[in-house]
Design brief:
Layout (H helix, E strand, L loop, with lengths): L8 H8 L5 E3 L4 H5 L4 E3 L4 H13 L1 H17 L2 H20 L4 E8 L2 E8 L1 H4 L9 E5 L3 H13 L4 E5 L7 E2 L4 E2 L3 H7 L4 E4 L4 H13 L7 E5 L4 E2 L1
Parallel strand pairs: 1-2, 5-6, 5-9, 9-10
Antiparallel strand pairs: 3-4, 7-8, 10-11
């Protein structure tokens, strides 16, 4: 009489082999049985033995239990669960699709589904559309370069700049642009949006302080969260 079960697969095995179930009503057991089998709310040996005796002696009662277990087993068949899971996940993805900064899709691969959720980074920048359309990726490290290339690919209609304190003046062939200094970026995109790409919090604050000190409003400063692939 288990005191704790996360699902209790032996219950489903008993359903499959047409063995009547008497189980302690603990944790996930009632949910797994879902009205089938027999639940007891005490592990007292006398109470359990009395319940077992009733199942053994009363054949009609025993058959009623087995019928209920068979119905529950059918609900747990892979093809039934697959449809339920797919519907639930599709509802979740439809809700995420309603937000303009995400795209989702799924595809069937043999006996499995692959669900993907893609953050459209450029769509996330619509909240900054009140500015003049110039966007500056602040930081030309590994993360910043990757972010710049993604934004350039997804939104070629917008003017996009890349700035960095240490790499200013260099032309990056991979990114296909010249890296400008933060001072130059402030002059060129005074009313634009600055996306700080560095992930180090101390450096991030230093960059934000520089921008604020050069007349950039806090509403014009965004942060790139690499872990969640989002512009905040």
């Amino acid at each position: 009489m288990s005191a704790h079960e996360g699902f209790c697969i032996p219950l489903v095995e008993a359903m499959h082999f047409h063995i009547p179930i008497i189980a302690h009503a603990s944790t996930a057991v009632p949910g797994t049985l879902a009205g089938s089998g027999v639940l007891v709310y005490s592990r007292d040996p006398e109470i359990v033995a009395e319940t077992m005796n009733a199942v053994i002696e009363n054949h009609a009662y025993r058959q009623e239990i087995l019928t209920g277990q068979e119905a529950r087993k059918q609900q747990l068949m892979p093809e039934v669960l697959e449809g339920q899971y797919l519907k639930a996940l599709e509802n979740i993805l439809c809700g995420l699709d309603a937000k303009t900064d995400k795209e989702s899709f799924h595809e069937r691969k043999e006996d499995a589904y692959q669900f993907s959720l893609v953050h459209n980074l450029f769509a996330q920048m619509d909240k900054f559309s009140k500015y003049n359309g110039k966007f500056v990726v602040y930081g030309a490290g590994t993360v910043g370069m990757k972010l710049y290339k993604v934004l350039k690919k997804d939104g070629p209609e917008k003017e996009l700049l890349l700035c960095d304190s240490y790499k200013a003046g260099n032309y990056d062939a991979e990114a296909g642009c010249r890296i400008i200094s933060p001072e130059e970026a402030v002059k060129l995109a005074k009313e634009g949006t600055f996306i700080i790409s560095v992930q180090d919090k101390k450096v991030m604050l230093e960059m934000a302080a520089f921008l604020l000190g050069h007349g950039i409003k806090k509403e014009q400063i965004a942060l790139y969260d690499r872990l969640n692939n989002q512009i905040l």
